Amino acid sequence: MTQAGLKNAGGGGAAAGPGSGAHRRPAVGLLESRRLLLGVGGLLGLALGLALAWYWEHPASLAAWALLLAGLGWAGADVRPRQIGTIGPPTAPVAPHGRRVRDGPLVMVELAGGPFFMGSPDTDPMADDREKPRHQVQVSALRMGLTPVTRGQWRAVMGDDRGSGGDAHPVTEVSWDDALHFCNRLSTQQGYRPCYRQTGRGSRRHWVCDWQAGGYRLPTEAEWEYGCRAGTGTRWSSGDDPESLGDAAWFKQNSGGSAHPVAEKGPNPWGLHDLHGNVWEWCWDWYGPYRPDDPIDPRGAAQGQSRVVRGGSFVYSPDGLRSAFRNLDLPVFRAEDLGFRCVRGPVRQP
Q1: Fold adopted by 3-23+90-344
Q2: Could you read off the pLDDT of 118-164 as tens digits, one per residue?
Q3: Model-level pTM?
Q4: Most buried pick, 63, 126, 172, 197, via CB within 10 A?
Q5: Where are the alpha helices (DSSP H) in 190-324?
Q6: Domain positions in the chain
Q7: What is the rounded CA–CA span in Å between residue 250 and residue 262?
Q8: What is the DSSP secondary structure assignment for residue 317, as one 8-state letter?
Q9: pLDDT tens digits, 182-231
Q10: How much helix, strand and coil, in percent to the nearest 5, is found in the chain?
Q11: Under 8 Å between Cβ of 108 and 99
């Protein structure tokens, strides 16, 4: 990924970005209606007690009604609404995050689905317009690679070497198209139906994704940021202070100018490594501005010229490693600091 890629990041096609998410809210319960009836009955009882006290001219009748009202109040004090149904998707994950599983040659982390706020708020002086508006989206459950795909994993699947470093280094010098070929081949080797196929002819030939297939694929931009944030709302999953990145990421100020073996830095709160820094990571989406009409599992623009890359790299300063930071490259582009990680999903929630 070059600095020119960052400077030219305002381009791209129209996006089909996420919007505001739905919330779970309880339906009105039968017991809640009962509480309302108790209140109304109490008021009527007070009125009747006053009338009888005046008619009988005997204060004892008023005292009797006061005792009756106190009893009704005590009986209704512990009444709570009983939820009898929900409207909309849940506002919190229904399964825990962070369970590691061996999935073929990859170690993956199971992430429960849930809502999160994507992008940067207007109040963040580091944010730029590409990261706005900040908006809520809902992501389905999935498995995400513990780390970027390594050179050793690439060689075992594809039979050739890419990038530099040892087997534990992230594979680099791979285009977006290369990453899709890797996902398909690994899916076939593991007995899964591949997600990707090419359609059309000549200059109109393009990739399509079968979202119902069970194979490996690239994360969508929303899935990537969901995994990167790991339940946080700060600039980095480690906090708002750039100093917090020292134990969590490789970047310009500590990398020595090269990529490092994966998982040398600590994980984020959900147990995922290297989402900040080390190497950029390809996402499925065409690059484009966010839109508010696609809040559930958004998959980006229908067309465009460049694909989204996320995470920053060992040649970028902390600003470029923020969870919300967006960048882009042509699908055929390869670079020494550009790799990818795999996901599978959505997976069935328990």
Answers
A1: paralog of FGE (formylglycine-generating enzyme) (3.90.1580)
A2: 999 999 999 999 999 999 999 999 999 999 999 999 999 999 999 99
A3: 0.74
A4: 172
A5: 221-229
A6: 3-23+90-344, 26-77
A7: 10
A8: -
A9: 999 999 999 999 999 999 988 888 999 999 999 999 999 999 999 999 99
A10: 30, 20, 55
A11: no
